[in-house]
């Protein structure tokens, strides 16, 4: 009987190998040969799934955005609106090792997108996802609280910048920006919205 | 009479060529051959200044940090403490084309530093520069204003994340994050400190 291969699982395994190679050696080292070795496959099998490096990179980044979306869809909120909003935004920050690896890959991809227009639509999709979460946060808190003379657009921009800046700092300085620090800085920022 | 060459000027010209190549083609394309062509030099002359690619990259990034420092040292402040603080922090944001090019190069370098430990000391130096500016901002505003029950360390972290997140968004979405938007978002953040 031929071995049954779950093709989606194989592709995810390859995408995770991309994240690992980015983590260890950087995005510029993501050759087909290295990724195949990391995933425990032959270069030929890898090419069966991804005919070229560009498709492989795009797929591995789509998997980052999908994982974030699935994580948010599967959340079960408890608590006040402010607490729920905080739980939602924490999904966008590298609070554990798994998310850290994804976000590190994502960050390298974002840098590459500055000079590679082909990567921009996918990057834009993720940015819009984060922006929407910040928009929801500001709108929810403004309905539940006071926020009398605030400009909602500006408040969204401000929260969006803080979330991405905090994610970046948590990647760069994990000893200083711990999960507790992320939580308290985010809480304080949300309090300035009320 | 032999031509007099200002060696520092030549090195700066080469470093600027690095920024241009990063902008157009990405950091992974910064080969000695390409940089030499961009700077209008032979590969041999370039190697005279920088024996290898790594030294060239480090120098070109040091120039980014130096330009930021010199820009801040040459500032002449006018206005209230809050206005002066805002002028200072705006130096750390890509408010014009020149700063944009520097910061784009810096951002690619930061991404590369995640997998290349040799680049980290220089990256850390720049991060500390930005952190110090945010610390000065929080301390100045807390002296001039009220800030009764605030945790200064947390406030610095929050401003630092906002400044870097805003810089990143201004690089990625220049049409949306205009100089005016940068100014108003920063003003609002500083107001939450008072």
Describe the protein:
2 copies of one chain form a homodimer. With 194 residues, chain A is mostly helical. Chain A has one domain (7-191): Tetracycline Repressor, domain 2. Chain A contains 9 helices and no strands. Chain A has helices spanning 7-25, 32-39, 43-49, 53-73, 81-90, 97-113, 120-144, 152-172, 179-191. The first copy, chain A, starts with 6 loop residues before the first helix and ends with a helix. The model of chain A has no long low-confidence stretch (mean pLDDT 90). Chain A binds chain B through residues 22-29, 104, 107-108, 110-116, 123, 127, 151, 154-155, 157-158, 160-166, 168-169, 171-173, 177, 181, 184-185, 188-189, 192, and chain B through 22-29, 104, 107-108, 110-116, 123, 127, 151, 154-155, 157-158, 160-166, 168-169, 171-173, 177, 181, 184-185, 188-189, 192. Chains A, B: Keywords: DNA-binding, Repressor, Transcription, Transcription regulation. Chains A, B: It holds the Pfam family TetR_C_6. Chains A, B: One of its GO terms (molecular function) is transcription cis-regulatory region binding. Chains A, B: Residues 8-68 form the HTH tetR-type domain. Chains A, B: Residues 31-50 bind DNA.
